[in-house]
TrEMBL record:
Pfam families in UniProt: Acyltransferase
Pathway of action: Lipid metabolism
Organism the protein comes from: Steroidobacter gossypii
Superkingdom field: Bacteria
Source lineage: Bacteria, Pseudomonadati, Pseudomonadota, Gammaproteobacteria, Steroidobacterales
Transmembrane regions listed in the UniProt entry: 20-53
Protein name (record): 1-acyl-sn-glycerol-3-phosphate acyltransferase
Record-level Gene Ontology MF annotations: acyltransferase activity
Keyword terms: Acyltransferase, Membrane, Transferase, Transmembrane, Transmembrane helix
Limits of the Phospholipid/glycerol acyltransferase domain: 100-208
Length: 273
């Protein structure tokens, strides 16, 4: 039996590398190096200088977050102009309101980078490991982010931030979605929203083809350039949950939020903008 057709079929199943693949691989690695270097410079040089300028604590905090946001916008710009990725962000002008809870799904490693880059002054609940990383711990400490340690202190810190009319970014999944696995929402976002949020605004994040997921290293880049789509949705209505006891209300809101994201992300999207 001739094996050549089977070899040809196997070759055809492998996606063809396009869009300057080797250049994108280099730019992806360079971008991660730039991110680490930038985090060190921002956290140990720029943010301490900002914090030294006399002002009220909330003014210092906002200045520090604006500096971080500008640095992250530069990072996204390098990746975009370097042809490592493309992106679209619709409705960003509705983000950054006082007391606003921004909830988003979490398909890739840099979702939080996009949101922080385009919502200057926002706080964020981020993974606790960033405080153990010598490159990032100074930055997340100085901008007063909140670790997602799944304890009462996280809920209290996030509630206090919203009560102070800060904008807060929260990923209800707590970590990146595993490819081909359903999203799992934890109740923290719903609990905090019912305690103190003036509004809850969803952001739907898609990335095609997938990259920087939970299951793959940074250097396993896709065959073609990934496109990130961030769409700001309509605010979620909290009024049906206000009169119920908090444990029951937060469970119901979490389930409704999860269904809402599933439905919206299942909608077909048009081509790239």
């Amino acid at each position: 039996m001739n094996a050549e057709p089977h070899l040809a079929d196997a070759t055809n199943d492998r996606p063809e590398r396009r869009d300057w693949w080797y250049w994108r691989l280099f730019m992806t690695g360079f971008s991660f190096f730039l991110f680490g270097l930038g985090a060190l410079v921002v956290g140990t040089v720029l943010l301490p200088i900002v914090k030294l300028i006399p002002a009220e604590r909330d003014v210092k905090r906002r200045r520090a977050r604006v500096v971080m946001s500008a640095a992250l916008r530069l990072f996204i710009g390098v990746m975009h102009r370097g042809r490592a990725l493309t992106y679209e962000f619709h409705g960003q002008e509705r983000l950054g309101q006082p007391g606003q809870m921004i909830v988003a799904n979490h398909p890739t490693l840099i979702d939080v980078v996009f949101l922080l880059a385009f919502v200057p002054g926002a706080g964020c609940v981020v993974k606790q490991g960033l405080w153990r990383n010598p490159l990032t711990r100074w930055a997340v400490t100085l901008v007063e982010f909140i670790p997602n340690d799944q304890t009462a202190s996280m809920i209290e810190g996030a509630t206090a931030a919203l009560s102070e009319r800060q904008t807060l970014i929260f990923f209800p999944e707590g970590t990146r979605t595993r490819p081909n696995q359903p999203m799992v929402f934890h109740r923290g976002a719903a609990n905090i929203s019912l305690r103190a949020a003036a509004s809850v605004t969803p952001v739907y994040i898609r990335c095609q083809p997938t990259t920087l997921t939970k299951a793959e290293p940074w250097y396993r880049i896709p065959a073609r350039r990934p496109h990130f789509s961030l769409i700001v949705g309509e605010d979620l209505d909290l009024s049906p949950y206000r009169n119920a006891p908090l444990p029951l209300a937060s469970r119901s809101l979490n389930e409704a939020m999860h269904r809402h994201f599933q439905q919206e992300l299942a909608r077909p999207r048009a081509g790239r903008a």
